[in-house]
Amino acid sequence: MESKNKFWKGALVGALLTTLAALVIVGMSLGIFLIGRTAIDKGTTAESVQAENQNGDLDMNRIVAKIQTIQSVIDKYYLFDEDNTKVEDWIYKGMLYGLEDPYTVYYTADEYKKLMEDTAGEYCGIGVMVSQNPSTGVITVSKVFEGTPGAEAGILPGDILYKVGSKEVTGIDLELVVKDYIKGEKGTPVTITVLRKEAGDYIDMTMERRQITVPTVEYEMLADNVGYISVSQFDTVTADQFKGAIDDLEKKGMKKLVVDLRNNPGGVVDAVVSMLDYILPDNLVIEGDPNLVRTKKDKTLLVYMADKNGKGDQYYASDGHQVDVPMAVLVNGQSASASEVFSGALKAYKKAKLVGTKTFGKGIVQTLFPLDNGTAIKMTVAHYYTPSGFDLHKKGLEPDVPVELKEELKTKIKIEHNEDNQLIEAINALK
Predict the structure, then answer these.
(1) Range list of β-strands (E), 113-182
(2) Where does the PDZ domain start and stop, copy by copy (predicted)?
(3) Contact, 384 vs 266, CB < 8 A?
(4) Confidence grade of residue 118 (pLDDT, cut at 50, 70, 90)
């Protein structure tokens, strides 16, 4: 119990890290005001607290003046050396944190450089997939790939990621945790600390980073000519791999298809659009909704987006190819973003049954905006909608056939098909 309390205390600290940093700054200002304000020029102090902005926009003159006031206090009284770069970075980080959107963040030059490493399905890491609760910042292992350092060290699905090395990672942007702490140079060691619910204690596991080739698409033909395709994420290589799997299964006589998107966190929009285009015919129309956003008559709308002004990209099928067999899509609470685009489109056109549990519910789009000196911000800029106009954000997609994975299977790295009760239900749904 003591270990669990320690974790949740640490989790809370991690989730509120930026808030606490802001509170420390407020506390410093208050302390200076109470005991040392005579040391500050009265004119500067007055300028920093002048008239409130009447129209609700940020008063940049007042903010700049206040920052200058704080800096003058730092210059005169701060005991230790000031790292100007870090101070400036945290001003910007704090500004975006104030938007209260976990997906909108500021990246330092070093963070942005690592973020922009090519997403081509290969990297030096440990071979695990993680997801983050947007409310608490807690990071959980959702999948462990066989034959990888993570699997060999003993990491299991469901483990809560507490530390990477000496760094507590709860509350840190998930992309940065992966690229800045988990990934690294080939052959270098990394220690992962997890909280395992069953054990009720922390477990430290040290492993060596290796070149990992992520199997984004795996497939096989099951009994009764049921094709099975598992997609672990939507990467730049995924669409071609998926189309290749479809082609091979069709040559082998596929009569039904199950696409497994469980624990798939999403990925590249172009990949999921290309995959949907390959499956769906080009001329599907959803009847009965005159308010649907549609600019191309008799074209299959795959997904569309809308920004704060109601404008955004629309994606349509156009390749002339379709897959004309009964389909089911396996989903769960970690099927997010691009996985929900894929599932939502097939559900909207009644081309597949969703089997499993409700999806994650991330129906918003982020864009990277490069800034000066190699820095950048990632900002939420639009909602995306299924072809039927459904906004799934914070709602998720409900399965047509709800079924929970058996409890004893949730921590297994590899689940055999004959024991996978969700897969069995998906196959039954196609009969």
Answers:
(1) 122-125, 128-132, 139-144, 160-164, 167-168
(2) 112-179
(3) no
(4) low
Residue 343 near residue 331 (C-beta atoms within 8 A): yes
Tally of CA atoms within 13 A in the half-sphere of 300 that contains its CB? 24
Structure token pair of residue 48: 């920093």
Looking at residue 257, its amino acid is L
Q: Is the pLDDT of residue 322 over 80?
A: yes
Q: Which domains does the chain have, with CATH numbers?
A: 2-107 (no CATH), 113-212 (2.30.42.10), 217-429 (3.90.226.10)
Residues of the chain with pLDDT > 70, as a percent, come to: 83
Return d(Cα 138, Cα 12) in angstroms, integer. 9
Tokens of 155: 């990491």
Can you give the pTM of this predicted structure? 0.79
Q: Strands (DSSP E) along 127-250, which ranges?
A: 128-132, 139-144, 160-164, 167-168, 189-196, 201-208, 210-213, 217-222, 226-231
- How far apart are the C-alpha atoms of 140 and 129, rounded to whole Å? 9
Q: Is the pLDDT of residue 146 over 60?
A: yes
User: Per-residue DSSP letters for 199-215?
Assistant: TTEEEEEEEE-EEEE--
Q: At 150, is the pLDDT very low, low, confident or very high (cuts 50, 70, 90)?
A: very high
Q: What is the DSSP letter of 181?
A: I
